[in-house]
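Record type: monomer structure entry
Structure origin: computed from sequence
Chain ID: A
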Amino acid sequence: MHHTYTNVVGKDRDVGYGILRMSEEQRWHPYYLGNPLWNALLAVFFQWGVALHDIEIEKIVAGEKDRRTVWSQLKRIGRKMRSQFTKDYLVFPALAGPFFAPVLLGNATANLVRNLWSHAIIFCGHFPDGAVQFTEEQLEGETRGQWYLRQMLGAANLDGGPLFHLLSGNLSFQIEHHLFPDLPSNRYAEIATEVRALCDEYGLEYTTGPLRKQYLQVLRRINRLALP
């Protein structure tokens, strides 16, 4: 759904992940006053937010999803969460014997850092200034070429060196990732120069910038869209 309908409000469920208002096209509700808080909680618990993504909370609230289906999904997710929780916070610390507490703290810290980092990288790839959002009406009659154009305009890259790109899983090349999602990610840097040259040739925006700048733009959008 996300890669097919990149940044199409109403089609791409990654626009707001079902809990955030990330577009002017999303109808405002007093619930969205909590946008900054919901975003902070999503960042801290990002692994669980991703796990619960397919539950489609907005459909549950609207009464559009069968409760048995939801319960079945929750049970499967619960088993995975229990397995990881047991591994990270019980088994591995227990194997460390007298170092139980340091290992427990280390695992919790590693998971927190991973969640914050993943959240920052992924949100900077979709919601900074310059990343275009689309309406469902704009999909009508969309050609294959226009699909590629939407992938380019609806995503943003992050500037950095080889180590930075490695640590981001190469999702710092979000534009190339959306153009060619089945390409091995270590090849993104290689084709990025060609994609950028193509954008320059046709006068298209190739949105890219440093992590700090992009993330501040994302946070500004989140705070601004908390209000009507």
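Annotation 1: The longest strand covers residues 157-158.
Annotation 2: The first helix runs from residue 35 to 44.
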